[in-house]
Amino acid sequence: MAFNSSLEISKGIGRITLSGELDAAAAPVFRADIEKAAAENVKRLVLMMSGLDYMASAGLRALVFAKQKMGAQVDIYVIGAQESVTETLELTGFHHSVIALDSYDAAQIEEL
Amino acid sequence: MEPLTVPAVLDSLGPIGRYVLEAASMAGLDRKAAYRLRLAVDEIATNIIGYGYPKAGKTGDVLVTADVGEQTLTVALEDEAVPFDPRALTRPDHMDLPIEERPIGGLGVFLAMEGVDEYQYEYVKNRNRNIFIMKRPDR
Questions:
Q1: What pTM was computed for the model?
Q2: Which residue of A has its CA nearest to B33?
Q3: Which residues contact residue A22 at a Cβ distance below 8 angstroms, ignoring those fewer than 6 apart?
Q4: Nearest in space to A24 (alpha carbons), one of B107, B54, B109, B10
Q5: Partner-chain contact B108 A57, CB within 8 Å
Q6: Which of A51, A80, B15, B130 has the most Cβ atoms closer than 10 angstroms to its Cβ?
Q7: What are the pLDDT digits (tens) for A53-93?
Q8: What is the DSSP letter of B11?
């Protein structure tokens, strides 16, 4: 299924909704949204992943790119990731560097 | 299954993924096993396309085959890029480092090796052959 990435920025939070399949061919689209969010100096990056059916290591590299562009102090939230995507994050230790939540928790995320 | 030949470009990853998922379905793999196999093949195909052929200074094709056997499903990728045995890459030892402090690279091959029941590599007649084997569920 085609990959789609869409970015909204409000209240200093960059929120990117991902859907479809994130392979190496699709990753530049995701990275472009990360760059746009970084340019706005967002304080948090929230990745809405419930519609993301597949993520290759190109997606992991995009997360590294986000940390490098935005700075380690910008928390990255992964919301609603599917089981297999979560498995990839855990297998590679990326779950230590992001905050995984089942659903969007405004109280936790928007408290700046 | 009929073999699939695609040009070694990133846009071929989608068709390769669909081919692998179809083979996994024919072999009766469950969703998780199918996902892992697809991820493994996708990662190695990405390396062939992104590094193997550019390093060889040429363009070429990737051949994908799938063989549903009695007990296993065997998927293979063949290419004429530079010889590269992914098993030669050492397992990354930085999995517990914060991601911003990690060296990039090796993650895809790691996921590929972890995901399949058996992985084999051969270099025969100027062709790389990456072989991915999954056990079929008991019927």
A1: 0.94
A2: A84
A3: A3, A30, A52, A54, A55, A56, A58, A59, A62
A4: B10
A5: yes
A6: B130
A7: 999 999 999 999 999 999 999 999 999 999 999 999 999 99
A8: G
Tens digits of per-residue pLDDT, A21-64?
Answer: 999 999 999 999 999 999 999 999 999 999 999 999 999 999 99
Query: Residue B71 and residue A7: Cα distance in Å, rounded?
Result: 46
Query: What span, in angstroms and rounded, lies between the C-alpha atoms of B103 and B105?
Result: 6
Burial B107-120 (b: 16+ CB within 10 A, else e): bbbbbbbbbbeebe
Full strand arrangement of the beta sheet holding B4-7: B4-7, B61-68, B72-79, B127-135, B118-124
CA A107 from centre of chain: 19
- Which region, left, alpha or beta, applies to residue B69 given φ > 0 means left and ψ of -120 to 50 means alpha? beta
Nearest Cα neighbor of B75 from B13, B16, B12, B20 is: B20
What is the Cα gyration radius of chain A? Answer: 13
Residue to substitute from B38, B99, B101, B110, interface A, most A β-carbons within 10 A = B99
DSSP B45-67: HHHIIIIIHHHHT---EEEEEEE
